[in-house]
Write a structure and sequence with these properties.
Layout (H helix, E strand, L loop, with lengths): L4 H10 L7 E5 L4 H14 L5 E5 L12 E4 L2 H11 L3 E2 L9 E2 L2 E6 L3 E12 L4 E7 L6 H7 L4 E6 L7 H10 L4 H20 L2 E12 L4 E3 L3 E4 L8 H4 L9 H8 L3 E4 L4 E5 L2 H13 L6 E4 L6 H12 L6 E8 L4 H14 L6 E7 L2 H9 L5 E3 L3 H11 L2
Parallel strand pairs: 14-16, 16-17, 17-18
Antiparallel strand pairs: 1-6, 2-3, 2-6, 4-5, 7-8, 7-10, 8-9, 10-11, 10-12, 13-15
Helix pairs in contact: 2-3, 5-6, 10-11, 11-12
Length: about 400
């Protein structure tokens, strides 16, 4: 799960991570007036420069015109009018872009240096990895490609946790002074604590700045959370912004379906993540392109299968559907009933290929054959892939 920059900063602030003061302005009548009022509040707190930032779940906002530095209140009004409602197209949004529904009006900062800082989990080593670079403000992928030597990685064993030497190593790599290093050790430790206690999958600060007063400050913030741990963080769940998510993803989450939209034209309905991956691979092997990853889980009901079909068919790119079920806990006859119910309810018009194997497979195949619907049966996975690819052509 992702959150907006302003929400990420609210969370980091709980852990004593310094962030810029700011105010949220949401879409609706009087945006310019509300943006000016927000700036006046910051001005009362000593702000002389303001930054108007689009709040979307994507990086690269600045290059797309979604971040504007303003030196007076009329400039804040103009920036708010220009950015709110705008479609921002960045490398992370895709060509369709994202519409701006929220603005963050922030206290401007005196920047001496810009850095990059991030924390992720390395699953191959079961270590937490802290990454830092002197190339702040740039996309880290670009730095990794052009100047990989400028990225330092420090691994932390989660069983022993963050230690002072981890912070000192990063501070040295960033070229901080002895006094600044003392601050950095605690500052980075606060980031680590936030990452662990909030069950994050990523924390990224780009840029992390050193102010002219010699303090580190998170000028931007990107925080992602492990969906599997959200039951422990009801406050984070409440931060979810469905306007920033793919409509199919939102619908899938309502029925506990694992769904990821892709660029192809063959819809996939599979039980089990590994089998879903193998299904997509074999479709590509036979010259097709999967339109989605969709795992209905091991114990899907007839209703769940019907909703899965609806989600697949809501994608206008889908030209054929492949149902690939291995019945273990899930019974093939239940799947067959769900497939038929969905096909009838939705008046299915695209080719449908079904491969069933496992518990009650013969009963499932019999139900499909007697349905009177145009369903193409497949003997095995390779046969199913060939038939569904052929159906799209």
């Amino acid at each position: 799960m992702n959150v907006h920059e302003y929400q990420a900063k609210q969370i980091l602030k709980r852990y004593s991570v310094r962030v810029s003061d700011g105010r949220l302005v949401e879409e609706g009548p009087g945006v310019e007036d509300r943006a000016e009022a927000a700036a006046k509040e910051l001005q009362a707190g000593g702000a002389k420069v303001f930054v108007v930032k689009a709040q979307i779940h994507a990086g690269g906002r600045g290059k797309a015109g979604g971040v504007k530095v303003c030196k007076d209140l009329p400039s804040v009004r103009a920036a708010a009018k220009d950015i709110m409602g705008k479609i921002l197209v960045t490398p992370q949004t895709g060509p369709e872009g994202k519409k701006v529904h929220k603005l963050w009006i922030e206290h401007g900062s005196d920047i001496a240096k810009e850095f990059y800082f991030g924390i992720v989990t390395d699953r191959s080593t079961s270590q937490v990895v802290m990454m830092a670079s002197t190339e702040g403000g740039m996309e880290i992928e670009e730095v990794a490609h052009k100047s990989p030597e400028k990225i330092i990685q420090v691994q932390v064993d989660p069983t022993t946790g963050y230690q002072s030497f981890h912070g000192r190593k990063i501070a040295k790599a960033l070229g901080l002074t002895a006094e600044q290093t003392k601050d950095a050790v605690q500052f980075i430790g606060n980031f680590y604590r936030a990452y662990m206690e909030m069950d994050c999958s990523q924390v990224e600060i780009n840029p992390l700045i050193l102010t002219t007063q010699g303090q580190l400050l998170a000028l931007d913030a990107k925080v992602n959370f492990d969906d599997n741990a959200l039951f422990r963080h009801k406050d984070v769940v409440e931060m979810r912004d469905i306007l920033e998510e793919n409509p199919q993803d939102v619908e899938a989450s309502k029925f506990d379906l694992a769904y990821i939209a892709l660029d192809g034209n063959i819809g996939c309905l599979v039980n089990g993540a590994g089998l879903a991956m193998a299904t997509m691979d074999i479709i590509k092997l036979h010259g097709g392109e999967p339109a989605n990853f969709l795992d209905v889980g091991g114990g899907a009901s007839k209703e769940k299968v019907t909703h899965a079909f609806k989600i697949i068919l809501s994608d206008p790119k889908v030209k054929a559907i492949l149902v690939n079920i291995f019945g273990g806990i899930m019974k093939c006859d239940v799947i067959a009933e769900g497939v038929i119910a969905a096909a009838r309810e939705l008046e299915l018009k695209v080719p449908l290929v079904v491969r069933l194997e496992g518990t009650n497979v013969e009963k499932g195949k019999e139900i499909l054959s007697k349905s009177g619907l145009k369903i193409t049966p497949a003997d095995d996975l390779a046969d199913a892939a060939k038939k569904v690819v052929a159906a799209t052509r």
